[in-house]
Write a structure and sequence with these properties.
This protein is mainly β. The protein has one helix at residues 441-452, and strands at 3-4, 8-13, 29-30, 34-37, 40-53, 56-57, 62-71, 79-93, 105-128, 134-159, 165-174, 181-183, 204-209, 212-213, 219-222, 225-228, 239-248, 254-255, 257-265, 272-274, 295-300, 303-304, 310-313, 316-319, 330-338, 349-356, 362-364, 385-390, 393-394, 400-403, 406-409, 420-427. Among the domains are: 3-159, no CATH class; 348-468, no CATH class.
């Protein structure tokens, strides 16, 4: 029998790890019910939970999905509604003598739901006067309930998230407009120097052309060589960048990762994409459920999107932006799936710091676009890895410095004004709130002084996006 730990709690959160009420609209979602036979239905109950110690979140938001079956009489053309009656999440621990470690806890989630089948129906009701005499009949419309049941569902999650770190390597070059194959000799050595690594030696890799993430079917990658097999080749002066990500466990062993890409093309007005919208021939896995992946990234026309701009459910990608992507824009959802040596799914958290260029080289928490997040600039020591995108182009790590609360560009030229700046941080630990990363005025002044006095001979140009 489990004993409940008073030291660590489990709470419902949104996809960003913010604690929310389970009774808030959209906090817990119910997938469209599936009718199997004889009024026997199945539905998926989805949401996010996180582990807290006191008031501090100590785990990334962990997606859960409870698939439950129920019997309900639902006549044709009736609708099935779900009303959350009760929600409970807790941490179950077998040893209560000390504070349990992250890798030693079980999370219990219980959901109680009122499920009803109903249909809007017209009724004739009497209209009465002050003496309750019937003077007329009026037609009203109301929901007629055919059947209603109370369903209790539960799941137990064994949460184990051993610390892993990632190593990054980046190959960068500029296309000449005639070359289809790129080799180590083509690399801009000032941005790397390791050449094109073997795919077997890394966890996963991405190829960007002019800032746009390329589907795997567009190229062949092997040690020392990248060949595009598309009809078109990279245009002259376009950047060609390969990002290699190598996850390693506590024993410094390389951990394999599976990368899925869902690719679609915007029609100019659609904001919801399903598996059927995938570009034929690109992939076949569709959109995986969030609880089955380690973390995901969304790119629209090559630009990494803030988490607040979209929601992911199995088979469904919904954009929450006011407008849809422009016509013919590429929409690519990248899902990274990492398992440790014991087969446990590794949970990571991807967040981003977003700002618009002011024409300068220093960006702090105060410059963050708050509608996209309030994490600020995370300490690199508290993340597994970080990537910087300027105007949608992935930048070499030699081009910038990250400190808690501050991003410094070391390039000879500054980003154009209003250009989007995105610092992506991926970690197995929760992101630090911006309230803890505010930079003191004296510290900011010192950093500016050091930057102005630095040797400009070490500065390198930004890698820019060519206008096509």
């Amino acid at each position: 029998m489990f004993e409940y730990s008073p030291l660590i709690t489990c709470r419902l959160t949104d996809q960003f790890g913010n604690e929310i009420s389970p009774y808030r609209t959209g906090a817990i979602t119910y997938t469209e019910p599936i009718d199997h036979f004889a009024n026997r239905w199945s539905v998926g109950i989805e949401g996010y939970i996180a582990v807290f110690s006191e008031e501090e979140r100590i785990s990334p938001p962990i997606p859960f999905c409870i698939v439950t079956s129920f019997c309900l009489c639902a006549p044709k053309e009736s609708t099935i509604t779900f009303v959350l009656e009760r929600f409970h999440a807790c941490v179950a621990n077998c040893q209560q003598k000390s504070k349990p470690k992250i890798g030693q806890i079980k999370l219990l989630v219980r959901v109680e739901t009122i499920i009803s089948s109903q249909k809007e129906t017209s009724f004739l009701v009497p209209q009465v006067d002050a003496n309750f005499n019937i003077i007329d009949r009026v037609c009203i419309r109301a929901d007629r309930v055919f059947d209603s049941i109370r369903v209790r569902s539960a799941c137990c999650i064994q949460y184990k998230n051993a610390e892993m770190q990632a190593e990054l390597s980046q190959y960068s070059t500029i296309a000449d407009g005639s070359k289809r194959t790129f080799r180590n000799d083509d690399e801009m050595k000032e941005y790397g120097g390791q050449g094109i690594l073997s795919p077997e030696d890394v966890s996963f890799y991405n190829v960007f052309v002019n800032g746009v993430l390329q589907p795997k079917m567009n190229y062949i990658l092997k040690k020392g060589e990248l060949t595009f097999i598309t009809q078109d080749i990279p245009a002259k002066d376009c950047s060609v960048i390969i990002l290699f990500v190598t996850w390693k466990n506590a024993d410094c062993q390389v951990v394999d990762a599976l990368e899925w890409q869902f690719s679609a093309i915007s029609n100019g007005y659609k904001k919801v994409y399903v598996n059927e919208d995938e570009v034929p021939g690109y992939e076949s896995q569709g959109i995986p459920a969030p609880h089955n992946v380690s973390y995901c990234n969304l790119y629209i026309n090559g630009v990494l999107q803030p988490k607040s701009n979209y929601r992911v459910r199995k088979g469904r990608l919904e954009l929450t932006t006011e407008t849809a992507p422009t016509k013919d824009s590429f929409v690519i959802l990248e899902s990274i799936i990492i398992h440790d040596t014991k087969g446990q799914l590794f949970r990571a958290e991807a967040c981003s710091y977003n700002a618009y260029s002011c024409g300068g080289k220093i960006y702090t928490d105060r410059d963050e676009i708050w509608k996209y997040g309030i994490y600020g600039v995370p300490d690199p020591d508290e993340t597994s890895y970080q990537n910087l995108f300027v105007n949608g182009i992935l930048q070499p790590h030699v081009n910038y410095i990250v400190q808690r609360g501050c991003l410094i560009l070391k390039t000879e030229d500054s980003p154009a004004e209003k250009a989007p700046i995105t610092l992506q941080s991926v970690s197995s630990r929760p992101a630090v709130s911006c309230g803890e990363t505010q930079l003191a005025e004296t510290t900011l002044a010192r950093i500016k002084k050091e930057l102005l006095n630095s040797d400009n001979a070490d500065e390198r140009p930004l890698i820019h996006r060519k206008q096509l």
